[in-house]
């Protein structure tokens, strides 16, 4: 151990009585501890909610959605389908049709999103089939006009499995407004009801077979695109790049993140704002440390003069006080790390902060620890404390040793 570190440690622990300088140093360590613990807990909560949202969305949406620049027939996607099916990364691939329609019942008329997909392929690209709570995902019921509704939508419509509902297509609404045509109406047999734990999906989405959807929207043999589900979610960006290199600008490729970019952008902004605000706690503690070390320079004026008269350079003196700032930050960071992780573990195991299960889909606030968050938090705490020690260190180095020990 270098003599600068040794002296810095002695300055921290060798005071025989607790004076004002020692008290301020203790307050600085406590402030860093609280700030680090708060950062770890809050970032873990953000991670928990982000993971929960991602799980809900991924269980409903595909990992990749590929759309032609212009609406094309299914034959235009054959090369894409063949290339995707041959890849080891792909777990499932299926064409789809989507559009808006008005569902009509005795209780409610509502504009919803209709999605058409082949029933034997939906399980390979989406987790909707696992969310079925009543009936099944069999679109062949009712003469091939089966429909699967979200739980909230079915409740609003007063529909149960086995009922028949009317769906009015918005395709060709321009001619309808000009009284040059009639609305396209199809009747569907409710074959199943799903619950995705997402209010928007459960209230405004319904699934039908691919052929009935094409007929409903007057698309003939055309489709809106192809959905893919990968074996690993982490491969979405790399496989997107592969498709873009392979097919160029003929298709537009969207990952699961792209489909919900606005939501994730808001969540990321909230996360960064919380991080910056909580860093103010560590910042206040570092200002306390600045005052503590400045007073220590005055208190240790004689010792600094003796060290410089014995041959210590200005750089040595600066390193002594910088090490003291680093040690305060390190002690506070380690203590905060232990405290924060302790709270996270207790929340995960014993639900210290529960949620009302009648309102929320989870029993308690979710938490999830990421190693990068721990590293950034610890580095931030040590960095701020080291920066706070810079001014007292430079001031101590400027002391004239003759003046410092003249009257001692």
What this model shows, in words?
- It is built from 17 helices and 12 strands.
- With 408 residues, it is α+β, with helices and mostly antiparallel strands.
- It folds into 2 domains: 3-57 and 263-405, no CATH class; 63-256, no CATH class.
- The strands form 2 sheets. Strands 3-4-9-6-8-7 form a 6-stranded mixed β-barrel.
- Helix 2 packs across helix 14 (314-350).
- The radius of gyration is 32 Å and the shape is elongated.
Helix-strand blueprint:
Blueprint: H1 3-13, H2 20-60, E1 64-68, E2 72-73, H3 78-86, E3 90-104, E4 109-117, H4 122-125, E5 132-135, H5 141-144, E6 146-150, H6 151-157, E7 164-169, H7 173-177, E8 184-194, H8 199-204, E9 205-208, H9 210-216, E10 222-223, E11 225-230, H10 236-247, E12 251-255, H11 256-259, H12 261-299, H13 301-309, H14 314-350, H15 371-388, H16 390-397, H17 401-405
Parallel strand pairs: 4-9, 6-8
Antiparallel strand pairs: 1-11, 1-12, 2-10, 3-4, 3-7, 3-11, 5-8, 6-9, 7-8
